[in-house]
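Q: What would this complex look like in 3D?
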Amino acid sequence: MFKAKIKTKIITVLLLMGFVGLCDMRASGGPQSSAAQADHPAQETWRKEFDDVCSKTQDDMTFSQEELANLIRRCDALLPQIEKLDETRKKVYLGRLRMCRGLYAYVLDSKRNEKK
Amino acid sequence: MPMCSIRKGTRRNERGLLLLVLACGVLLLGNIAPAQIYLPKPPPEPSEYGKVILDNHSTAGPGPVVFDHWLHRSKFTCRLCHVDVGFAMEAKATGISASTNRGGFHCGACHDGKKVFDGRTVFAACSDAANDKRCDRCHSLGKKDVRQYEYKKFTAKFPKGIYGVNWEAAERSRVIKPVDFVEGLSVKKAPMRSREDFALKAGYSWVHPIGFSHEKHSIWNGCELCHPEIFPSAPKSTIHFSMFWNIEGRYCGACHGKVAFPLNNCQGCHPSGPRWAHGAIPIG
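A: Here is my prediction, written as structure tokens for the whole assembly.
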């Protein structure tokens, strides 16, 4: 009788653990990797920096030359981290970084030429 | 020497000179024509305009994909797809495949079977699920009755311009509300600052000036789609952005003549210019 009770408890605990695991997997979008899925925290630092640097493109004309140079430096620092990503992610984000950096460099050039 | 033979000689010289001038004129025109009086080809029917055939695996698989720009541009900004999602502006440069779509990139950035748009769940591109195999919706080249949207029906309520839908008017009248953000890929940004529209004086006196809507272009494209890759420098003149280069697909021709209104619509850029270049005005 006592053994049967322990067995039932073990089965219940195992079922609960399985259920929690399943819910967790569904919450993260299933086993398939997805662009929308959150990365490993260590990998996510590059994404936060990328989002921060490239979220300022619509304000490009308002930055000073020093601020633009700093944004370009931050883009350059991101490059080796993005190059480590898997092929598709690398291609997408390298393209975006190229456009983002290119714009800052373009505005910086225009501002330098204006001063001349 | 008798007078009449001198006159004959002079006439012969005059005729020779005239012929020489004419020959030079023809040669000069021959050189100028392709460079300066270069007219764009008539565009296809508006329903076919901006159609892209993606044919990465023509020998195997479900066949080429037919992508209609008119359908997607009614829902999204150019920037969203060509910057955030990473669709290149040139053919075969993106590297789309079924696995990248399944991984949440390219078409799969939106077509993931989860995102809801206009109250409908967007179907999953290249889905592996047996009950969700709808390859023909995109891989539709040469297949009949597989496309869900038909141009005339879809754009029936859209304001029309000189050529097909007038997308600017469609947005102004709120018939379309292009989305500029896709969860997971886009960066949250403050709204685009208003850009000043300006006029560009043409490099030639006989070319009408351009009224450039910097605001409209920056809202739809962002800054980074055009600068610096399409427009590496921005002198306030069209001298470097001539029609020759536009027709060749550079500068304005990167979009106009392919997806954005065709280069034949002269007044689209030169408000005081002629309405339409080359052939009859198509309305559709």
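A: To summarize the key features: The two ends of chain A are 93 Å apart (CA to CA). The helical segments of chain A are 2-27, 41-54, 65-83, 87-115.
Q: Very helpful, thank you.
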